Amino acid sequence: MSDLVSQKVNMIFKSLKGETVHALKDITFSLKKGELLTVLGPSGCGKTTLLNIAAGFLRPTSGSINLGGKEINGPGVERGMVFQQGALFEWLTVNENVNFGLRMKKEDPIKTAKKVEEWLDIVGLKGFGNTPTYQLSGGMQQRVALARCLINDPDLILMDEPLGALDALTREKMQSLVLKIWKETGKTIILITHSVEEALLLGERVYVMAPRPGRIHKEYKLPFASMGLKGDLREIKNGKDFVSKREEILSMIWNMEEEIMGKEI
Amino acid sequence: MITGFITFFTIFAVVGAILYGRKLIKTEKTDSVFGNPEKAKGGMHWVVVGSSFLLLSWLYYSWDIAKSFYPKSANELCQVAKVHESLLSLKYLFPIVERQHKSTAIIKRENINIKDKIILIQNDPDLKDEDKEIFVNILRNTKLMIPSLTNERYLEDDTKNIINQLTIRLNKLTAEFPKDSYPSLTEEEQNEIDKGLKTQLGWGATGMEVPPLPESKRGLKFHAAATELNSISDEFFEMRNHNPEYLRQSEAIFSEIKEYMDGLGDGQELDYIKDIKKLVRRIEYASIFPPDTLNELEKSIRSFDEIQNNEQGNLRTIDIFLFPAGTIVASGPQCSEAGPGRWLPKPSDTFRIFGEMLKPSVGYKMIPMLWYEMMGVNRIVGFILPDWIADVMPGKYPVHNQGGTVDPNFKSKVLDIVTGEFEAFKIPVPSGHIWDSFLRVFLGLSLGIILGVPLGLFMGLNRFAKGFFDPMVELYRPVPPLAWAPLVITVFGIDNVGKVFLLFMVSFSIMIISARAGASGTQLSKIHAAHSLGASKWQIVREVIFPNSLPEILTGIRVAVGMCWGTLVAAEFLAGTTGIGFVENVARKYMQYEVIWITIFVMGMLGLLFDVTIRKIIDKTIPWRGKG
To answer: Which of A63, A73, B32, B542 could anchor a disulfide with A9, C-beta 3.0 to 4.6 Å?
Structure first.
């Protein structure tokens, strides 16, 4: 019963001047345990707002999101979050960063040290434990962020454009890593991205969101993620199905962007 | 000697560095880029030149180079100054420093004065005609009196004799002066000089400028010559050319004046009469002689002047080149160092006095600069534990009994402990001026950090706190800390408490502002991350917001240290009995320039020490700064 269920979530921002922005409108979806959902959409369509609500940083104006039957009411350990820039604590080493969540729970440091080592091994950072995080490259920082989030054993992992700031090569490697972790841990993952390719490649399910008001425009169920677990990601990307899906979604987003621009002018 | 060595060494260093610089230019690739910052890289050898330049300037302008290479020069120049002084009045008689003979100049001036006065009298409408006639007559007679002084016919033999004798004495001095045997002092004279020399301090010590008694053979020569010259010039100026003819005329003039005055009645004296009297007296006391009478004397003075100039030898060169803005000779027999040699004390003296002051037994004003004292643990315990602990103990304080003794009970024993009245071993505790200043800065700064950082973080995170405390902080912060000093000193006293509180005020506001900036600059994503990793509010403040604000806080501490240090020294200047600022203030009162420079140096070094320490701490604690 650790499904994620979103019921008619509305988010309306009000400014002091009285202007209102309808950031999210009637978002309703449900996610089974172990599913990987990618959310795609033009900027300003409320992707991050949705994620922040799921994480508990924001309260929706109406509606609710339930995780495992419990309404989300503030941030919690059962929902881990990975940010675009890692948001690592640069005054701590890699070990200490990964250990942060366990330390906050005041767990036995000897046990946690072992756990940290295991997780660093999984994300491919073995031997970097005592490195200060500001000395790491962008890709490595994201690996630390992943490990830091996963060590808490959350039910749901929320990723806010985690690979957005990486170069193309690193990004590909990290995509395999995300898939690998998804497979090995069986976690429910929501991943937000602005790269169509990434959304298709990683998403078992893909939501394309539309702006003003933010809503789910279209939903896809795709086989590429499970293919990617076995095969080579580059091959999949060049496959016919993949290319046609990509073009379809791209043109959809382009249309949305034009619509917005037209509105603005 | 050390100064001499340093002088040579720095000159070598400068030459070497310049040669190295030239060599470096030759090996460099030439480019035609103007303003290429590459060209400003390196350059340690120019640092050597720069510091050597500074050191050499100091050595030179404080006359330390002169002192080092020619330790006797100042004393000898002082003797030369004595000769100059004695010779000067004689030289003024003749066209040696002046253009005319003194007699010529006086006669010229007084003739003009008489003429002007006659015109003035004749044109005065308030004056009766008969008075006018009398006054003009007196003045004409005065003018006629001058030839009686300048005519060789009237010159008395006595006067001639005296002039001859003085000339002979001068010539004898001129002949004797260059000889090695000069001066031949009597035993008594020699003893007197030796006695003075025993108590005479060296050149340049605080409280003593150039030692006035001659310390060398050459100095003694000039000293003796100056004495002789003084006696010659005294005798000359005592002598008057008052021959019988002059006296007759002068008497006639004064009787004429007296006659007129008697006619006027009591107590009345016209301004004109006063002026005329003055004029006559001026001529009387001026050394007016017939034109050729003093020729021989002039010749002998000239030849002595020449001889003494020759005898100065290398002293003249030393005076010109090693005594910049030299004033020893000009200052006359006082032999002062007024000028750069005075307020820019000699490095050798400064270091010597610094060494003295560092000795704990000497220090400054009975307090060592930096030392330790043995303090009983009981005093420390008594200071830390509050006295009311004894009050809240059960029982009553003992009362004396009939036997005249007091039996201690539990309560009184506790009181003894909390007031420190018990025997205990002693531990060394630092003390002294430098330590006191350091401790004040340290305490003020620590208090400011301990209270300012939490409040600043709170203000950076909470709207209420920011709004509530902002007016308080912003109202007192822009006021220069010293402006608060009078009030703070009134309330908390001139001793440590007042100063520490003043420094606390300085550091408190700085720490609040920096901690606030640090807290409000925390990235939201980091706080989100900490939240979703399960950190509580308190944990977020301690584990995320505080370390994230560290760069700002440490920069704030660095600023606060500088501000505190500056404020402290000024506050110690204002009031107090210890501290490095106090030392400078006292030294200023007694014009101990060496001590002033020492305190300036100590302050600079301590400030540097603070800054370097904090910079080291910054590098250690926040290595991620600028790399995040």
So the answer is: A63
